Amino acid sequence: MTLSTVTASHIRIALLRRDEIALLDVRHEAVFATGHPLFAANMAADRIALEAETRLPRKNVQIVVYDDGEGLAAVAIDRLRALGYTDVRQLDGGLGAWQAAGHELFQDVNSYAKAFGELVEQRRHTPSLSADEVSALIAGHANIRILDVRRFDEYATMNIPGSISVPGAELVLRAGRAAPDPDTTIIVNCAGRTRSIIGAQSLINAGVTNKVRALRNGTIGWTLAKQNLEHGADRRGEIGAFEGADANARDVAYRAGVRRLTKAEMAALQVQTHRTLYRFDVRAAEEYAAGHIPGFRHYPGGQLVQEIDMAAPVRGARIILTDDRSVRADMTASWLAQMGWEVYVLDGGYDGALEATPPLVWPKPDPSQRYRRPYEGTDIDTGAMQAYLDWEYGLVEQLRRDATHGFFVI
Q1: Helix (H) or strand (E) segment spanning residue 328
Q2: How far apart are the C-alpha atoms of 224 and 219, rounded to whole Å?
Q3: 8-state DSSP, 239
Q4: N or C, which end of the chain is more exposed by having fewer CB within 10 Å?
Q5: Alpha-carbon distance 29 to 109, whole Å?
Q6: Pick from 276, 344, 345, 287: nearest CA to 311
Q7: How far, in Å, CA of 41 to CA of 29, rounded?
Q8: What does DSSP say about strands 314-315 and 21-25: parallel, antiparallel, or unpaired?
Q9: Is the distance from CB of 98 to CB of 25 less than 8 angstroms?
């Protein structure tokens, strides 16, 4: 079968116009991380049968695949067409043509979420403290609370001593219980930079009265400063919002341009076959498993912001978020809207029939095919860690050169 091709210019124009397009890098993740267009999503050719129908829910969406001369694009097109996708084409000349046209290549994974986080810090001057400053506060028994916004499994592997786990979008919902004293300084950390910045700025945007600071460079910065990490901790922040958090979170979403809809209005969007619609439940996994609205996939809010290219590879699609307490959906939606998504929050919906099924979990790829993040595990490679931080610091300038992002910061 003849392979239909499109040019790099076609893709760039689609991104600038915010047309729906899924630009898929069909190499393995480890190779994808060496360089790719800003809005490319990784879907290895040998995982298409496993992932495509969940990640690409509309069969007539515009899909463009590419490789770097390995011959994987043709294989990917055959597999997508076999699944019923009708508009699948190949980037003419592959990744080399994109680069030859003078367009930017971004390293690592979740690159555009990380670039967005750097832009937020630059625009909002999100306050932070160095590892040595935080260590001194701990040693001096200062009135602080360190909140770790990574996934719980990341936290349990290694964490800042004394910190508690409050993953991403749970921050605003749980900060009142985690730091009930308004004089407590809240310090937000992740592994590197992005989730710390977004987490700290979420609390600031939502109007928490406590002083809020990000731990600059997260556990990487902590390690490079030769501070000790704790291992095997299981402290979790309990639900308890600060006064006014619900209304404040809704106002943050409103300022970002998030729209709210009813179940009837959602049903009207669902029948529009010319648009891709993603639906995500952003609560904790155990809440989702206990009962969720049918048709919603689980993706905890903080990770959704960080991993939006993985969750929703169709750039320009619509996204609906749900949360029985609203706060997490509002805060998550506020960030996705600033990243250029058309995003909605569903009002209610939990008074009807709910499904009680566990979150979808795919088998992990072979370790040799997966990109190993420099902050993973307990190994210490200070050179890789410093290089990673240097790369993150350069992302805002790279966004400027690329000029396709369309991000804004409230």
Answers
A1: helix 327-338
A2: 8
A3: P
A4: N
A5: 8
A6: 276
A7: 10
A8: antiparallel
A9: no
C-alpha span between 182 and 197 (Å, rounded): 21
Residue 26: its H or E element:
none
- Token pair, residue 334, equals 């506020």
Average pLDDT over residues 235-250: 96
Check: CB of residue 212 under 8 Å from CB of residue 186. Answer: yes
Question: 17: which 2 tokens?
Answer: 């116009």
Q: Which residue has the tokens 């009135």?
A: 143
Listed residue (42, 45, 38, 48) closest to 12, CA to CA: 38
**Sheet (strand 318-322) strand order:** 259-261, 342-346, 318-322, 277-281, 297-298
Percent of the chain having pLDDT more than 90?
93
For domain 116-244, give the fold.
Oxidized Rhodanese; domain 1 (3.40.250)
Q: What are phi and psi of 21, to 5 degrees?
A: -155, 135
Which homologous superfamily does the CATH classification assign to the domain defined by 1-107? Rhodanese-like domain (3.40.250.10)
Give the type of residue at 180: P
Q: Which helix (H) or strand (E) holds 298?
A: strand 297-298
CATH class of segment(s) 249-346 = alpha beta
In single-letter form, the type of residue at position 231 comes to H
Domain-wise residue ranges, the chain: 1-107, 116-244, 249-346
Q: What share of the chain in percent tops pLDDT 70?
A: 98
Output the six-digit token pair for 261: 């809809």
DSSP reduced 3-state for 342 = strand
Q: Each residue of 273-309: pLDDT tens digit?
A: 999 999 999 999 999 999 999 999 999 999 999 999 9
